[in-house]
Amino acid sequence: MRLTDAEQAMFDGSKGAAVARAMDLLVRYGEALGAERLVETRNVAGAFNASTPSVRHIAEDGFDRVYSELNLDSDETVEIPHVAVPTCQLITGIDNDNFATQGVDPDLADLQKRSERYLGRRGINMMCTCTPYQVGNVPVRGEHCAWMESSAVIYANSVLGARTNVEGKESTGAAALTGRIPYWGLHLPENRFAQHLVRVEAEVDDMADWGVLGYFTGFAVEEDIPAFEGLSHQPSLVKLKHFGAAAASSGGVELYHMPGVTPEAPTLDAAFGPNARPEPIVYGAAERKRTWERLQNASDRKLDFVMLGCPHNSIDQMALIAELLEGKRIHADTALWVHTPRAIRQIADRSGFSEIIEAAGGVVMSDTCPSISRRLPQGVRVIATDSAKQAHYLPAIAKVQGWFGSVEQCVNSAIAGEWLGVVQ
Ligand code: F3S
Predict the structure, then answer these.
(1) Residues 127, 69: one domain?
(2) Taking CB atoms and a 6 Å cutoff, what residues make up the pocket around ligand 1?
(3) Ligand 1 atom 6, closest CA
(4) Which end of the chain, C or N, has fewer beta carbons within 10 A?
């Protein structure tokens, strides 16, 4: 690993013990990956907050200890300085306001709040969402980032044309203190060309349809980079958010190209660059139906819990849910939790959407989600969700049955107390 003079000085301790630890971690990590150098980043999105029971005993020794152990992989506690570059907190395990509904012990919620004050004083912005790009962290094309969270990484790489690999707690912890990350993988332009062609012959328009196409794509290309042809409708932020989250769940897709939509691929030729264009993988009506069926992991129709907002909802999605719930009442045996970034919740509150959702018996949650927190309403056996990603993970994590469908199907089923969806 070649270091610049400034990096070598940080490695040698010119900026203190924590930065030296961070440089040591980045060098070891980069060498393991075969990186020859580091690259400067001014955009870090990681997980720093102390919000799980397992962190409690570490936090008894102070938050410097938590950062040292979990974000720098250091047995020795070092004093953590202000971060070197703009850094944000991704999703956490606890909603600071709805922790009782989540079944979180108040002491643990208090620990998270104290942890946030500690991190905030060191310059880490408490966005507390898996969609930082919805609330102000929007890297520009070509910008080198150090982001965790697979659904955010695929959005940043593909839709925004930024450059990041899927980082971890330790590498983002070190990047925040140094403004560096190993230069490998998707930071290198030559690694960003398409390897597979997906020919879309089925109509893909509704948000659920984009999730199903993403889920199909992840299985089809695994960790490779696909390009698409034949798309019949222009997607939006919300549709690409669902598409990418699904592709990163069924596979490990971190980058895709859609000519005419994503910035690095104005044409298919540009998407493939020097790579030979392979035989297309066809996504037609049969593949769409099979994939939709694959997302149904339930047999009981009596519904205990509906989860909306994975990835966290946009304000448009909050408006749609409020419209569907206006004047209605969610079934007494069914819980509905709607997840959105705290910044968007503010807008939803002021726009009257939260009030409508809550008057119908729903809960508007921020800061967390059931897959990350591993907390659902008590006694849940059967869930439904409008997210292919959540339908993929939650049944396995929580040992529940799971239905997948459109927002309308989910909301109407929450009102009925039973799953009304049909495979479309
Ligand atoms: Fe976000 Fe949780 Fe889904 S982190 S992408 S809401 S699984």
Answers:
(1) yes
(2) 91, 130, 151, 245, 310-312, 339, 369, 371-372, 389-390, 393
(3) 310
(4) C
- Write the DSSP symbol of residue 380: -
| Ligand 1 atom with minimal separation from the 149 CA | 4
Distance 246 CA to ligand 1 centre (A): 11
Residue range 379-401, pLDDT digits in tens: 999 999 999 999 999 999 999 99
> How many structural domains is the chain composed of?
3
Residue nearest to atom 4 of ligand 1 (CA): 130
At a CB cut-off of 8 Å and minimum separation 6, what does 57 contact?
none
Decide if 136 is inside a domain.
Answer: yes
Are 349 and 380 within one domain?
yes
Residues 203 and 166 in one domain: no
Longest dimension (CA), the chain: 65
Of 314, 166, 163, nearest in space to 249 by CA: 166
CB 166 within 8 A of CB 150: yes
Token pair for residue 228? 């698409």
State the DSSP H helix or E strand holding residue 8, giving kind and residue range, or none if neither. helix 5-11
